[in-house]
């Protein structure tokens, strides 16, 4: 089964700009320490909202029945400054070997997977690395290097500009499908660079489920849309 964490690690590597030979040894040492699990240990703060299920059908909808949405949970980390919302029936998924500065993994009863990773970089923004299309090309190229991957097809991509007044960073969102020895998958990813840290949110779904079920597509895109990085003042 394809690992969200491993894919995120490859993407983090893809978003590292070229470095000079003088700094190569130091950067290599940092990645080796991280891969060995010797980086600073961080436990994400997960706060489950005790919110009531929201009624989405009005009393005039007929038949006297009301539809309700699942209660939401919030995954938030104060130290690394990010948050997102997801359905409360998702569960934390552990990982025995740490390969990032920070990592949080979740999975749904229906087989969806979510991963948030944070890694150090030497640039201050996504734009410093490249345009949306340039970064998309790099991300898809990295995905094709994975063992067993036969094809990678871009579905959609979008850029959200930074807003200095609101202290919000820029984001790139890239959605693509893969066909590999592990099956056909859909990946919806959101990237941000803030404080010289690369934030990667990745949602993974079976391609047939994503394409065939509007509820799955809505859930994936809602989670991706809720992901935000808080810029320190």
Automatic annotation (TrEMBL):
What start and end residues bound the annotated signal peptide?
Answer: 1-21
Q: Which Pfam families match?
A: PsbP (PF01789)
GO cellular component assignments: extrinsic component of membrane; photosystem II
Q: Can you give the residue ranges of the PsbP C-terminal domain?
A: 75-229
Instruction: Name the GO terms of the biological process aspect.
Output: photosynthesis
List the protein's name. PsbP C-terminal domain-containing protein
Top-level taxon in the UniProt lineage: Eukaryota
Q: Which organism is it from?
A: Chrysochromulina tobinii
Q: Provide any one GO MF term from the record.
A: calcium ion binding
What are the entry keywords? Signal
Q: What is the lineage of its organism?
A: Eukaryota, Haptista, Haptophyta, Prymnesiophyceae, Prymnesiales
